[in-house]
Amino acid sequence: MLKPALEPQGSDPALLDRLAAIVGSPHVIADRDSMTDYLVEPRGKWPGSAHAIIRPGSTAEVSAVLRLCQETATAVVPQGGNTGLVGGQMPMDREIVLSLRRLDRVRAVEPMSNSIIVEAGVTLARVRDEAEAVDRMFPLSLASEGSCTIGGNLATNAGGTAVLAYGNARDLVLGLEVVLADGRVLRGLNTLRKDNTGYDLKHLFMGSEGTLGVITAAALKLWPRPLDEAAAFVGLRTPAEALDLLALAQKQAQVTSFELIPRIGIEFTTKHAGARDPLTEHHPWYVLLDAASSTVGGAAADIGNVLEEAFERDLIGDATVSASIDQRRAFWRLRESLSDVQRLEGGSIKHDIAVPLSAIPTFLAEADAAVERLIPGVRVVAFGHVGDGNLHYNLSQPLGADQASFLGRWEEVNAVVHGIVTRLGGSISAEHGIGQSKRDLLPEVKDPTALALMHTIKQALDPKGILNPGKVLQR
Ligand SMILES: Cc1cc2nc3c(=O)[nH]c(=O)nc-3n(C[C@H](O)[C@H](O)[C@H](O)COP(=O)(O)OP(=O)(O)OC[C@H]3O[C@@H](n4cnc5c(N)ncnc54)[C@H](O)[C@@H]3O)c2cc1C
């Protein structure tokens, strides 16, 4: 177990001057008002408290900053777009926030080798645009893509809506450039598809949430752009039927996304987000299915065949296929507003769970019964990437309930839901990570040997414990 070996932040009066000498005074932010943007996270659950925000503009500056922090035992919290949902990017104890947003250069785009090299602070939306400009596709897609950065995506091993077809963020990476805690630079920015020269170190840093190194650039895989994409909005009776539909669709179409939405989600989005219910009849559950094809008109045709067979087998109640790009976007806007609209229905207690695909119906039945026993009238808003076995099992407070006392039961509810997840062989963090939110739960769910190895790796790469202390692992 790591021992804290850190000086109280700010004890060295010359520290900020020395940091300013590296990054330039305009890029050292120490007044409270200017720091606010960096210290408030999307959930409003983990307020940050920082000594200063440091904004390096190059890998060399990141390296010099970390060398100085190592020398002075100064704790550093790496931060990208500040869209993380588990508090990993928030300083807890007046650490220094190392904002990577100024590392925003696209270093190379190589359509021939289907690769792009970008610095850590480039937003995900920009990577997708750069790929599109050379008739390629970068498949990672999150509702936060306008703000989140590639560095943050890789540090959290983000998931999103296209994991079913292309994998998690780590599967989209060819090489990484990483600055280690002592300032050394690991130069691994190759675009090779094959490289079996020993341990594949890049995977240590992906999903490590800034606790093992600072990602400064990444070589990413690109794909040919599909000639056709289409979406279907499908109404059905049960989650089990949704899984049968998935199996059928994967046989007959190139399915890229398969998202589950409950009826209450349609009610919330039509009420609060101006969405239009895509189907005329009400259904207990909905699926938003996206498919791609390498022939013009192929995606819609494939989806049409899938739906025809699904109707014949009585798997689905109703469905509509997007007739235009705008309609497909409208389906996705509805799906992407599901998290936000819950805020307008009072407090919500959230989970980001995964179970084996076949256990989804059991999980939902057991969890729904358990949370109703705990909080009668609680409104379950379970939605998400069901094709990956991943659900955002969110709970809105009962109508008329007191928000504060509902939210006060967060841990108690988590314990019950996570207990079911663990029993079913699942994960309590499918895609958002551990951060500070689930750090103390990790020892309860992680294999003890795996947890011990994680501590050994942390100790080897960051012996002074300066990188994002208190995140992922207990100190
Ligand atoms: C509306 C919305 C929708 C979202 N949808 C999804 C979704 O579908 N799937 C999903 O997986 N997530 C989702 N997220 C969560 C979030 O967008 C992702 O975790 C994203 O990858 C974080 O990127 P970021 O640049 O904002 O990182 P930050 O929030 O700044 O940081 C996240 C973590 O990464 C570390 N970090 C950041 N940059 C670096 C770096 N360069 N080197 C080392 N460590 C670093 C931080 O220390 C922190 O631990 C969503 C968030 C919002 C607000």
Termini gap: 7 Å
For the largest sheet, list the strands in their spatial order. 5-6-10-8-9
Q: Which residue ranges are poorly predicted, with pLDDT under 50 across at least 5 consecutive positions?
A: 1-5
Query: How confident overall, as mean pLDDT?
Result: 95
**How many alpha or pi helices?**
17
Based on secondary structure, the structural category is: alpha+beta
| Major sheet details | 5 strands, antiparallel
Summary, kept brief:
With 475 residues, the protein is an alpha+beta fold.
Please give a handful of descriptors for the protein shown:
single chain; 475 residues; alpha+beta; 4-stranded mixed β-sheet; 17 helices; 19 strands; globular; disordered N terminus; binds flavin-adenine dinucleotide
Description:
This protein has 475 residues and is an alpha+beta fold. Strand 8 and strand 9 form a beta hairpin. The N and C termini lie close together (7 Å). The N terminus is likely disordered. The site of flavin-adenine dinucleotide has 37 residues, from strand 3, helix 5 and strand 10.
Describe the secondary structure blueprint for this structure.
Blueprint: H1 15-23, E1 28-29, H2 32-39, E2 50-54, H3 59-71, E3 76-79, E4 95-99, E5 106-110, E6 115-119, H4 124-133, E7 136-137, H5 150-155, H6 163-166, E8 173-179, E9 185-188, H7 202-205, E10 214-221, E11 223-224, E12 228-236, H8 239-252, E13 254-262, H9 263-272, E14 285-293, H10 298-312, E15 318-321, H11 325-336, H12 338-342, E16 348-349, E17 352-354, H13 360-374, E18 379-383, E19 390-396, H14 403-407, H15 410-423, H16 442-445, H17 448-461
Helix pairs in contact: 1-3, 8-10, 13-15
The site of flavin-adenine dinucleotide has 37 residues, from strand 3, helix 5 and strand 10.
